[in-house]
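__Protein archive entry__

___
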Amino acid sequence: MSRNQKNNRNIGFHISIKGNQYQEFYTKSGFLVAKGYKRIVIGNRGPYIEFTPEQIILENIFIPEEQKKRVSEDIWYYIEYRTKRDNVKIYLQKKTVAYADYRVGLYYISPSDLQTSYEKNKGQILRSFKSNQKTLEGFKNNDYQKSIDNFLGGGA
């Protein structure tokens, strides 16, 4: 595998391990959480998407009442936030840890809690295709799925 191929691997959905400023991230119900990301961090607890404060949509997250102690107490390694819809957990790193390369001052979210604009758009297009039987004529399930993936940039 070439160096370029390694840098452009994805983690189960259609994003590169290296970040960009354009990718949008949504909760499973389509609630916008972030625009852009720095990178994917893979540690002992699995992959996490890393965000700068500027990339997180701060008005869409909050600190739960029972987690507010983490802001002022120095014993905690992170501050826990939640999205205002769908209750997605977001970590703001306060201290370094030995098991992953989490960076102080950056936010982390599990990719299993999010969808990208690719998945969101793919779902909308699939629903549109399924609701319009004429569109489906002449397509087999795999053929139209491949067409959608290729159109959205996720195909091979």
Q: What stands out?
A: Residues 3-113 form one domain. The chain has a mean pLDDT of 80.
